[in-house]
Design goal:
The structure is a single chain. By secondary structure, this protein is an alpha/beta fold. The chain has one domain (2-218): Glycosidases (TIM Barrel, Alpha-Beta Barrel), CATH 3.20.20.80. It has helices spanning 17-23, 36-48, 89-102, 119-127, 145-159, 177-186, 212-218; strands at residues 2-5, 27-31, 51-56, 70-75, 108-113, 133-138, 165-167, 192-194. The chain has an eight-stranded parallel β-sheet. The radius of gyration is 16 Å and the shape is globular. The chain starts with a strand and ends with a helix.
């Protein structure tokens, strides 16, 4: 299913939920924040029938968003960047244990991995498989569609073929968009969630808000 990363703390990055629904978008992904604007947006998504993926990122300070459909624990722990919550495999394994034991009934997926190297997650799994893990999130930036497909495939032998892969951030050239989504669908990826909705969220990446053609291609 197709989704998009939003940020309700900025009006421009919080598209009307009925407009997203009309486009054919079924998921929104946002950072878990104890902020009235974020709470309201999650409620609006739920009322519109959109699923919400809430990311427990560095900025969350441990906060878990009530009402979210799925919770992603951590963000890009396998790289160092301004948007990453960088963790060693052992640190991340312990983070997961704490969240899983504290919230045993919530659906959780593992952090969005951005290094393009499955070795970091392999080290996590060598400690032990993540208990109650409903998926593994991947961010295949700077990858062609074929390279992204191969990256997704590289994670499956590590976590097992019964745990789905989620692409929770991606951004490709316009001419690659339909091929990318087709390959991800064939690879049984749970969702492909575009980043960002608007360039206000990241001025180096093309946003859907500013590009009519891109929206049509993504939601075709």
């Amino acid at each position: 299913m197709i989704g998009v990363n939003v940020d309700p703390t900025y009006p421009e990055a919080a598209p009307p939920t009925n407009s997203l629904r009309d486009l054919g978008i079924r998921w929104v992904r946002l950072v878990s924040r104890d902020d009235p604007k974020v709470h309201l947006y999650v409620e609006e998504c739920t009322n519109e029938g959109l699923a919400v993926l809430s990311v427990v990122a560095r900025e969350s300070n441990g906060y878990m968003m009530p009402g979210a459909t799925v919770h992603q624990i951590g963000n890009e722990p396998d790289v160092n960047s301004p948007s990453s919550w960088t963790r060693t495999p052992a640190e991340y394994h312990e983070d997961w244990r704490i969240y899983r034991e504290t919230y045993p009934d919530l659906m959780m997926i593992a952090a969005g991995l951005a290094s393009g190297n499955s070795g970091w997650l392999q080290q996590v799994w060598r400690i032990s498989p993540l208990a109650g893990c409903s998926g593994v999130a991947v961010h295949p930036y700077a990858k062609t569609p074929l390279q992204a497909r191969d990256l997704v495939a590289s994670y499956k032998p590590i976590v097992g073929y019964n745990i789905p892969i989620w692409v929770t951030e991606w951004n490709n050239k316009k001419e690659e968009v339909q091929y990318f989504t087709s390959l991800m669908q064939n690879a049984n990826v749970m969702a492909t969630i575009w980043f960002p909705w608007t360039s206000i969220q990241n001025n180096t990446l093309q946003g859907l808000r500013e590009n009519d053609d891109l929206r049509r291609l993504l939601c075709a």
